[in-house]
Design goal:
The protein is of the alpha/beta class. The protein folds into 2 domains: about 15-260, Alpha-Beta Complex (Spore Coat Polysaccharide Biosynthesis Protein SpsA, Chain A); about 285-410, UDP N-Acetylglucosamine Acyltransferase, domain 1. It is about 20% helix and about 25% strand. Strands 14, 15, 17, 19, 21, 23, 24, 25 and 26 form a 9-stranded mixed sheet that branches. The chain has a 4-stranded parallel sheet with strand order 5-4-1-6, sandwiched between helices. A 3-stranded parallel sheet has the order 13-16-18, with no helix packed on it. β24 and β25 form a beta hairpin. The two termini are about 35 Å apart. Its EC number is 2.7.7.27.
């Protein structure tokens, strides 16, 4: 949803509170989707980007002072933030609210890039001492790659009521899933008395021990929080709603396809707390003589005489005649090709944007601005689990075929 609507009327600004969204990580586990963009800038749900989730939660919670820390491949993220959330976009933060990007930089006192999540915040701690001439009492530190909806006002109030030094959002998980996340041990008063980052084996548990202090630690999960829990009042805030970490290609793929279910476990639109994104001037989706089931077709897409099942078709995506697309994510394009440019491409033997005629695509992610020729089959015919072909822009991660942004797949190719 774009910013034609103002934030919900029940969003009461939180006094003396600001938010920091961590958007600077390299996103190596989500590669190749992060080959040319920061992880929070990765498209999701056909229309949105991952950064829209914490940004929207802040707006809906009444937090109007927001910093976004960036470092790797930050161009597209910065561009999206500028288009979606700064002046002229339609959002009304009210008062002296703002969204400001803080990029990794080198200064006379800091001669290295961000060394971790905590180090990123530390390098800009001087900004937090006085925000727009108002001292900050509480700072909400958020990840830019999770899918959830939360009222941060309740979170901050809980932090204040428990007189906590640090409050951590926590949710229950099965023993198997807990291996992928930080694991906290809490007492009856929800105080954190132990913390382990992604415990998988006894050896991994032992390796997580860090002999350091807060002055030198670089990471919240592996260093700051475990150390703080030993000598400070660190409290867990229980959260029982939908919350997923978009950390790998497989989790990203699975969470996108979950959005096509009816009803979906997570809905981007909620009248009380909608998810916002950049306003766009594109036509409605056009679907011609096609069968579409359990799928999302984004605005500006053109689908011709094709079968779409359990798939997301992104912005400005073009699906040629006779295609079968199932269990797939087609991200679409940033622009439409003009007739003159299209003619030049065809004359040069290049592949136009979109999916050509008579293609079969399953268990795959087609990134933005990619061109899939005619009669192409992307089906992982050999059942390969992992593969990298940088020259062609084709990768396989956990059995999922990924065609990278801007890549071209020639006619009659079988993957």
């Amino acid at each position: 949803m774009a910013f034609e609507d103002s934030p919900p009327s029940n969003a009461t600004p939180i006094s003396c509170c600001t938010a920091i969204i961590l958007g600077g990580g390299a996103g190596s586990r989500l590669f190749p989707l992060t080959k040319s963009r920061a992880k929070p800038a990765v498209p999701i749900g056909g229309t949105y980007r991952l950064i829209d989730v914490p940004m929207s939660n802040c707006i809906n919670s009444g937090i109007s002072k927001i910093y976004v820390l960036t470092q790797f491949n930050s161009t597209s993220l910065n561009r999206h933030l500028g288009r979606a959330y700064n002046m002229g976009s339609g959002v009304r933060f009210g008062g002296d609210g703002f969204v400001e990007v803080l990029s990794a930089t080198q200064t006379p006192t800091e001669k290295v890039w961000f060394q971790g999540t905590a180090d990123a915040v530390r390098q800009y701690k001087w900004m937090m001492q006085d925000v727009k001439n108002r001292a900050v009492e509480d700072i909400v530190i958020l990840s830019g790659d999770h899918l959830y909806r939360m009222d941060y006002m309740k979170f901050v109030n809980y932090h204040r009521e428990t007189n906590a030094d640090i409050t951590i959002g926590a949710l229950p998980n099965s023993a198997e899933r807990a291996k992928e996340f930080g694991l906290m041990k809490i007492d009856d008063e929800r105080r954190v008395i132990g913390f382990t980052e992604k415990p998988k084996t006894p050896e991994a548990l032992e390796s997580c021990k860090v002999d350091t202090t807060n002055a030198k630690a670089h990471d919240f999960g592996g260093e700051i929080i475990p150390e703080a829990s030993k000598r400070m009042n660190v409290v867990a805030y229980p959260f029982y709603g939908y919350w997923e970490d978009i950390g790998t290609v497989k989790s990203f793929f699975d969470e996108n396809l979950k959005l096509t279910r009816h009803p979906s476990e997570f809905e981007f639109y909620d009248p009380q707390s909608p998810m916002y994104t950049s306003p766009r001037v594109v036509p409605p989706a056009t679907i011609e003589n096609s069968k579409v089931s359990e799928s999302i077709i984004s605005q500006g897409a053109f689908v011709h005489d094709s079968s779409i099942t359990n798939a997301i078709i992104g912005l400005r995506a073009i699906i040629g005649k006779g295609c079968t697309i199932q269990d797939a994510l087609i991200m679409g394009a940033d622009y439409y090709e003009s007739e003159s440019k299209l003619a030049k491409k065809l004359a040069a033997g290049e592949v136009p944007l979109g999916v050509g005629e008579n293609c079969v695509i399953t268990n795959a992610i087609i990134d933005k601005n990619a061109g899939i020729g005619k009669n192409v089959k992307i089906i992982n015919k050999e059942g390969v689990e992992e593969m990298s072909d940088e020259k062609r822009g084709i990768y396989i991660r956990s059995g999922i075929v990924v065609v990278t942004k801007g890549a071209q797949v020639p006619d009659n190719t079988i993957i």
